[in-house]
Amino acid sequence: MLEILGAKWAFLVIAELTSGPKRFNQLNRDLNVVKTQSLTDVLRHLERSGIVRRDVFPTVPVSVEYALTEKGHGFQDALKEMEKWAVKWGDGTNNDPRLQADG
């Protein structure tokens, strides 16, 4: 899981594709904080990992669409669990009473 998320922007791309397939230019517009080359790199990484499927349509010019695979949708479930953890523990404080200093 960490290998997949190790690619910068992977989380954002996966989240963006949860709403359905998107063409590259649409992803590029929607994720305007991600540079074009970085988006290309992360999409290739996610495709090699089996998270994203790349479909090429024989139009002029060629159209490319990206979508989550079945594995990608399953990975999304793991990300939701991580989000739950972050909501509970992500404030940077340690709420474990065993580790609290004696007052």
Descriptive overview:
With 103 residues, the protein is an alpha+beta fold. The protein is built from 5 helices and 3 strands; from the N terminus they run ααβααββα. The protein has helices at residues 2-5, 10-17, 24-30, 36-48, 70-89; strands spanning 22-23, 52-57, 63-68. A 3-stranded antiparallel beta sheet has the order 1-3-2. β2 and β3 form a beta hairpin. The radius of gyration is 18 Å and the shape is globular. The model has no long low-confidence stretch (mean pLDDT 83).
Short overview:
The chain is α+β, with helices and mostly antiparallel strands and 103 residues long. The chain is built from 5 helices and 3 strands; from the N terminus they run ααβααββα.
The beta-strand count equals 3
SSE string, helix = H, strand = E?
A: HHEHHEEH
The helix fraction, in percent, is 40-55%
Q: Summarize the main sheet.
A: 3 strands, antiparallel
Rounded mean pLDDT is 83
Which terms summarize this structure?
103 residues, alpha+beta, three-stranded antiparallel β-sheet, globular
Summarize the topology.
Blueprint: H1 2-5, H2 10-17, E1 22-23, H3 24-30, H4 36-48, E2 52-57, E3 63-68, H5 70-89
Antiparallel strand pairs: 1-3, 2-3
